[in-house]
C-alpha cells in the first residue's frame, strides 16, 4: 500500500481538517491506527479524496459517529479514515410533503430536534442517537424498539446521494414519497457498512409527532411468562409502537427492578387511544402472570429507552462481548432462556433483550475478569443454538482476541457470489472498508 499523500489531502480540505500521527489515536479500530484522518465538507470533497485514494491504492474507512464500528471482521489494514462530522446540514424540510433531506454526518438526535420544531419526526429510534449519524444509521441499518410498528431505515428512505469508489457522485430515488420510477437503488446501501460507497445525503419520510407517548413496564416472574404475554399482546387489538422482551439482568441494568423478566410496551398516538391501550395491557397480561405494571412518561420514559439502547455499553463495565440473534418471534423466550443458561454454565452473566415482535435479540455477555476461553465457548454455543433454531447470529462487539477465534458473521451461503459481484462492480479496486463485511467483502 502506498503512503498516504497528506499534502494532497490538505489541499482538498484544508490543513486543519487532516489528522496525522498521534492525532489519529481516537480513530483506532481493532488495534490499528489509520495513517491519516480527513474531514471533507462537501460531497465533492469526498469524491476528490476517493479519486486520490484509488490512484494511490489506499484503503478507506468511512466514519460517522463511530457507534457501529465494532461490527465487522478486524481490518487487515487501515489506511485513511474519512470522517463525516463536517457534513451536518439539514438541506430541506418540507412539512407539507412529510420529507426531509440532510447530509450524512448530522447526528440523528440533532435531526430529530430540528424536525420537532415543526411537529414532525423520523419514526426511527436507533441507539445512541446523540452520536449516531444519519449516514451511519442507514449504512448499518440501525433501529430501535419502535421498529415493531414503524419499520426500519429501509422503510423510511426515499432518496440518497452516495459517492462511489471512483469518485462518481450518484443519486437515486427522489424527494417525494410517491417515487416509483426505476430500480430502488438507494436500498442497496442500507446495511452495506460503507463497502459500496460513502453516503453523503439522504431524503427520508417523516411522520407527525404523536400527541402522547408512554412506556409500560410489565414485570413477570420469568421469561416464559413474559414471552406468553408478548404473544398475547400481538394477538390482541392493541397496536403498540414497541414491544421488547428483557430478562432480569437487563431489567436491573436499566434500573427497573431486580430479577424475573419484563415486557416493555411503547404506546403512542392520541390521548384517548393511548389511555385505552394502557388499560387493555393490564387486562390482557394480568391473568398471564404479570406481577406489576408501571406506566412511564416524559424523562423517565426516555431514560428507560435510552438505558436499554446502551445496554452493554454504559451499564456493564465488564462487558466481554455483544452478540445479536435473529430467530422466529415464537421461539424468542425459549432461546433467551437457553442462552442465559449457557452463559451461567460457563461462569458468565448475560443480559438479554429482544424486539419481541420481530425476533431480533441482543445478548450482552459479562463477568468480572472473564477468561477468553469462557467467552469464546459461550459465543460458540450461542451461535450453534441460534443456527439450530433456523436463525442467524452476528458478533456485534468483542475484543480483538475473541474476534480472532469467533467469526463475526455467519457463513453467507449462496448469496456470497451475488454480493461479491456487486462489490466488484461498484468498488473494483476494493478500497472501501475491505474485508470487514460478510464473506470477507
CATH topology of the largest domain: Uridine Diphospho-n-acetylenolpyruvylglucosamine Reductase, domain 3
Which structural class fits the helix and strand makeup?
alpha+beta
Question: What level of helicity do the residues show?
Answer: 25-40%
Shape: globular
Blueprint of the fold:
Layout: H1 6-13, E1 18-20, E2 36-38, H2 43-56, E3 60-63, E4 80-83, E5 90-94, E6 99-103, H3 108-116, E7 120-121, H4 134-140, H5 147-150, H6 153-156, E8 157-163, E9 169-173, E10 198-205, E11 207-208, E12 212-220, H7 223-235, E13 242-247, H8 248-253, E14 261-269, H9 271-285, E15 290-296, H10 298-309, E16 319-326, H11 332-345, E17 349-355, E18 360-366, H12 372-388, E19 392-397, H13 400-403, H14 415-426
Parallel strand pairs: 2-4, 3-4
Antiparallel strand pairs: 1-2, 5-6, 6-10, 7-11, 8-9, 8-10, 12-14, 12-15, 13-14, 13-17, 16-18, 16-19, 17-18
Helix pairs in contact: 1-2, 7-11, 11-12
Structural notes for this entry:
Helix content is 32%, strand content 24%. Helix 11 packs antiparallel against helix 12. The strands form four sheets. Strands 15-12-14-13-17-18-16-19 form an eight-stranded antiparallel sheet. Strands 5-6-10-8-9 form a five-stranded antiparallel sheet. It is globular and about 70 Å long. Strand 8 and strand 9 form a beta hairpin. The mean pLDDT is 93. The protein is α+β, with helices and mostly antiparallel strands and 441 residues long. The chain folds into four domains: 78 residues, Uridine Diphospho-n-acetylenolpyruvylglucosamine Reductase, domain 2 (2-Layer Sandwich), CATH 3.30.43; 119 residues, Uridine Diphospho-n-acetylenolpyruvylglucosamine Reductase, domain 3, CATH 3.30.465.10; 97 residues, Alpha-Beta Plaits; 85 residues, EIF_2_alpha (Alpha-Beta Plaits, 2-Layer Sandwich), CATH 3.30.70. The chain has 14 helices and 19 strands.
Amino acid at each position: 500500500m502506498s503512503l498516504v499523500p497528506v499534502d494532497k489531502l490538505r489541499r482538498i480540505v484544508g490543513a486543519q481538517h487532516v489528522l496525522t500521527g498521534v492525532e489519529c489515536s481516537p480513530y483506532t479500530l481493532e488495534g490499528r491506527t489509520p495513517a491519516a484522518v480527513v474531514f471533507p465538507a462537501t460531497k465533492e470533497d469526498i469524491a476528490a479524496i476517493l479519486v486520490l485514494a484509488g490512484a494511490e491504492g489506499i484503503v478507506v474507512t468511512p466514519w460517522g459517529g463511530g457507534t457501529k464500528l465494532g461490527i465487522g471482521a478486524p481490518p487487515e489494514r487501515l489506511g485513511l479514515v474519512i470522517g463525516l462530522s463536517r457534513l451536518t446540514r439539514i438541506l430541506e424540510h418540507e412539512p407539507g410533503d412529510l420529507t426531509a433531506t440532510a447530509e450524512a454526518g448530522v447526528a440523528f438526535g440533532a435531526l430529530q430536534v430540528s424536525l420537532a420544531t415543526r411537529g414532525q419526526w423520523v419514526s426511527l429510534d436507533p441507539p445512541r442517537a446523540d452520536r449516531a449519524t444519519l449516514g451511519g444509521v442507514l449504512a448499518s441499518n440501525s433501529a430501535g424498539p419502535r421498529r415493531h410498528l414503524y419499520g426500519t431505515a429501509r422503510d423510511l428512505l426515499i432518496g440518497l446521494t452516495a459517492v462511489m469508489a471512483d469518485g462518481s457522485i450518484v443519486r437515486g430515488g427522489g424527494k417525494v414519497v410517491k417515487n416509483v420510477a426505476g430500480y430502488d437503488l438507494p436500498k442497496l446501501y442500507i446495511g452495506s457498512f460503507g463497502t459500496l460507497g460513502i453516503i453523503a445525503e439522504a431524503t427520508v419520510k417523516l411522520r407527525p409527532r404523536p400527541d402522547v407517548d408512554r412506556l409500560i413496564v410489565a414485570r413477570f416472574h420469568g421469561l416464559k411468562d413474559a414471552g406468553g404475554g408478548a404473544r398475547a399482546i400481538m394477538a390482541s387489538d392493541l397496536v403498540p409502537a414497541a414491544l421488547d422482551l428483557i430478562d432480569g439482568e437487563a431489567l436491573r441494568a436499566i434500573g427497573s427492578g431486580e430479577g424475573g423478566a419484563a415486557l416493555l410496551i411503547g404506546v403512542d398516538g392520541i390521548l384517548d387511544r393511548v389511555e385505552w391501550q394502557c388499560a387493555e395491557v393490564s387486562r390482557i397480561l394480568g391473568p398471564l402472570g404479570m406481577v406489576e405494571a408501571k406506566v412511564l412518561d416524559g424523562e423517565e420514559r426516555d431514560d428507560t429507552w435510552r438505558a436499554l439502547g446502551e445496554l452493554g455499553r454504559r451499564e456493564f463495565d465488564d462487558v466481554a462481548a455483544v452478540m445479536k440473534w435473529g430467530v422466529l418471534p415464537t421461539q424468542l423466550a425459549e432461546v433467551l432462556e437457553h442462552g442465559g443458561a449457557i452463559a451461567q454454565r460457563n461462569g458468565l452473566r448475560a443480559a438479554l433483550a429482544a424486539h419481541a415482535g420481530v425476533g431480533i435479540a441482543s445478548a450482552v455477555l459479562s463477568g468480572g475478569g472473564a477468561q477468553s476461553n469462557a467467552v469464546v465457548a459461550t459465543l460458540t454455543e450461542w451461535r450453534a443454538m441460534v443456527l439450530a433454531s433456523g436463525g442467524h447470529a452476528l458478533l456485534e462487539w468483542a475484543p480483538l482476541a475473541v474476534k480472532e477465534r469467533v467469526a463475526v458473521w455467519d457463513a453467507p451461503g449462496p448469496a456470497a457470489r451475488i454480493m461479491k459481484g456487486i462489490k466488484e462492480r461498484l468498488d473494483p479496486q476494493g478500497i472501501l472498508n475491505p474485508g470487514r463485511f460478510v464473506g470477507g467483502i
